[in-house]
DNA sequence: CCGCATCCTCCCCGATACTG
DNA sequence: CAGTATCGGGGAGGATGCGG
């Protein structure tokens, strides 16, 4: 994902790659419901994530213009993460996919409760 | 993906899992533009796919109600694959994600041509 | 408090060969 | 023509520990 192999990539695969991986979607869902969130607060809400994965996911999301990182040089250090305007604009497409998923789950008799993070992005 | 570990799954992750993996999206994009396609025709359009991956992907898509498999008992054997009505209904959400991706690619100065399969699902 | 480096594990996917 | 069986490599992601 970090490799500079800029091949032919269709916009759909491109978009899916940006939010791909295990943790990016949960991160986006949390940031969607709050103005800005501190690193450790984010970590507590994402049960089971390691520092490694959280910082890496945030870094990639930031590089792709989805997430904004605001660092305050205080003691103790404080860093706030939030969705950029670009980042917020992906919520609508994701919601429509989520709607499709909900309908499809019902139709396929796949009874599953919703996860805590992604319950509702609206 | 075949494991019976029906945990809590949000509709969004659920939907993304159905079209996840390396080949399912290209397959869907091809089937979106034709009424029905034979196995070997599908294989020729998907440069580089193996029998293993093609049959496995089709099987999972069929189990999930996205793809319909019609078998004709002729000699030589003939099998036609097509999108179900359910399958076609996911094209709209995917298109809106694709639109977002296109806009975002432009804004991020990521110049990339589109791939052959996903050029346009409409 | 925030984040990186290293090592290790698991499973997706490819290559190859074979069958009705 | 339309698949299945088996083996193995590589990359994503987890565990642990260190650094500013």
From TrEMBL, chains A, B:
The keyword Transcription regulation applies. Residues 10-109 form the HTH hxlR-type domain. Keywords: DNA-binding, Transcription, Transcription regulation. Pfam families: HxlR (PF01638). The keyword Cytoplasm does not apply. It comes from the Bacteria. InterPro entries: HTH_HxlR, WH-like_DNA-bd_sf, WH_DNA-bd_sf. One of its GO terms (molecular function) is DNA binding. This is Transcriptional regulator. It comes from Blautia pseudococcoides.
């Amino acid at each position: 994902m970090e490799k500079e192999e800029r091949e032919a990539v269709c916009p759909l695969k491109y978009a899916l790659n940006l939010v791909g991986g295990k943790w990016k979607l949960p991160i986006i869902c949390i940031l969607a419901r709050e103005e800005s969130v501190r690193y450790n607060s984010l970590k507590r809400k994402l049960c089971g994530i390691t520092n490694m994965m959280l910082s890496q996911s945030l870094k990639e999301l930031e590089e792709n213009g989805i997430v904004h990182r605001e660092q305050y040089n205080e003691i103790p250090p404080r860093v706030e993460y939030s969705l950029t305007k670009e980042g917020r604009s992906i919520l609508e497409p994701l919601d429509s996919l989520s709607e499709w998923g909900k309908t499809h789950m019902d139709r396929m008799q796949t009874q599953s409760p919703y996860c805590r993070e992604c319950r509702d992005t609206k």
